[in-house]
Amino acid sequence: QVQLVESGGGLVQAGGSLRLSCAASEIIFRLYTMGWYRQAPGKQRELVATITSDGSTNYAESVKGRFTISRDNAKNTVSLQMNGLKPEDTAVYYCNAKLTAPLRADYWGQGTQVTVSS
C-alpha cells in the first residue's frame, strides 16, 4: 500500500512562512495526483492545493498567491511552501495521493499541525 508521511509543521507568527513536505513510500508516487488538505477541530477537511503528475497545479482561493505546491518525482516527495501565513491557516495539514487510471486509489497521510499566532 502507498504510505504518506508529512513533516514541517509547527508554530509560526502571522506573516511568517513554513514549508511542509510529504514523503511517499512507493515509487508509484510519480503517477499520482498529489494534494494538500487541511482540517481545523470541528470542521470538515478542505482542499488547499493539488498538483498532477505532469505538474499542473490548482489552489484554493484562500491561499492563491501565498502558497506554492511542488513535487519532486525523483525523491517521491511533494512540498507546500506557505508564505504570509494568517491565523485562519491554523489546521492539521494532510497529504493526499490520488490515482485515477488505470485503477482508482486514494491515500492519506497522518497529518502535521500548523499553528499561526496573531
Can you characterise this structure?
The chain is an all-beta fold and 118 residues long. It is built from no helices and eleven strands. Strands 2, 4, 5, 6, 9, 10 and 11 form a seven-stranded mixed sheet that branches. Strands 1-3-8-7 form a four-stranded antiparallel sheet, with no helix packed on it. It is globular.
Q: What is the element layout, followed by pairings?
A:
Layout: E1 4-7, E2 10-13, E3 18-24, E4 33-39, E5 46-51, E6 57-59, E7 67-72, E8 77-82, E9 91-99, E10 105-108, E11 112-117
Parallel strand pairs: 2-11
Antiparallel strand pairs: 1-3, 3-8, 4-5, 4-9, 5-6, 7-8, 9-10, 9-11
Main features:
118 residues, mainly beta, 7-stranded mixed β-sheet, 4-stranded antiparallel β-sheet, 0% helix, globular
Strand tally:
11
String of helices and strands? EEEEEEEEEEE
Write down the overall mean pLDDT: 93
End-to-end separation: 40 Å
> Which structural class should the secondary elements be placed in?
mainly beta
State which percent range the strand residues make up. over 45%
Number of helix segments? 0
Return residue spans where pLDDT drops below 50 for at least 5 consecutive residues. none
Task: Label the overall shape.
Answer: globular
Task: Report a brief summary of the structure.
By secondary structure, the protein is mostly beta strands. Helix content is 0%, strand content 53%.
